[in-house]
Write a structure and sequence with these properties.
Length: 254
């Protein structure tokens, strides 16, 4: 799965502890929406802060980096990673750490989005719109039974996701040795790979929906709604970043 949060081990460990109330699908959806808003607000504030004060284009981007944009980007990434790592081992802390993760991720995404939008004006709103449309489409496809997490579907997407993770790792190692991967270019092959990865991220949503539904039926603790909400948010963030990357490659060819 796209998120290590949605695993039987994590939920089995939570189920043996004492708790009040049980997890529901509707409750998880509400928590996910709440976390999404908690992520959007700091991203929007950061965006307005630098966009209004710094202006547009390269001058605005230079102003942003000279006034701490990289600090917000890396700070948000690090805080979000730490919060998610703690939740992996302390699921009962999810109601308190999930908002921290969402806010930190908002700062990271706000900074990244500002950089992309400076290079390609309007790309961020397009990426957000496409991401939300895919999310709604996948949710409707799952609820209608058009797409289900069958054993074969699950196996294919799991191996594909592992392959993407390995590809990211190889690309990162190549970068450490000064070798630029074709993945960062705008060749037809690079665009095709980005589209494929975005598709894999989208299909991971089906697996997320299925897992959440099964754990709710099995009587997982109420606080795991926040835990599952973070997992869904992780998949959405991954999907958004890949769509943003794909759109930037397409626009760079114009």
């Amino acid at each position: 799965m796209s998120s290590p949060f949605l695993s039987d081990k994590a939920f089995d460990g939570a189920r043996v502890a004492s708790y009040d109330g049980e997890m529901t699908v509707s409750g998880t959806v509400n928590k996910t929406i709440t976390l999404f808003l908690m992520m959007i607000i700091p991203a929007a504030i950061l965006w307005l802060k630098f966009d209004v004060q710094g202006g547009e284009g390269a001058e605005g981007l230079s102003y942003a980096f000279n006034n701490g944009l990289s600090g917000y980007m890396w700070g948000g990434l690090i805080v979000g990673f730490i919060a998610s790592l703690v939740m992996m081992f302390k699921q009962a802390w999810a109601p308190y750490l999930a908002p921290v993760y969402a806010a930190a991720e908002g700062l990271f995404l706000g900074a990244v989005s500002l950089v992309f939008n400076t290079m390609y004006d309007g790309i961020v709103m397009n990426a957000i719109g496409i991401t939300l449309l895919i999310f709604v489409g996948m949710l409707l496809a799952y609820r209608s039974g058009l797409l289900r997490a069958t054993p074969m579907f699950t196996k294919v997407i799991m191996f594909a996701t592992m392959g993407v993770g390995l590809f990211y790792l190889i690309t990162m190692v190549m970068g450490m040795f000064g070798v630029e991967s074709f993945y960062y270019g705008s060749s037809p092959l690079s665009i095709g790979i980005s589209a494929l990865i975005a598709g894999i991220a989208a299909f991971n949503l089906i697996m997320d929906f299925d897992f959440i539904e099964k754990q709710s039926a099995a009587g997982a603790p109420k606080y795991m709604e926040w835990f599952a909400g973070v997992a869904l948010l992780m998949t959405l963030v991954w999907l958004y970043l890949e769509i943003l990357r794909l759109l930037s490659k397409l626009q760079s060819r114009d």
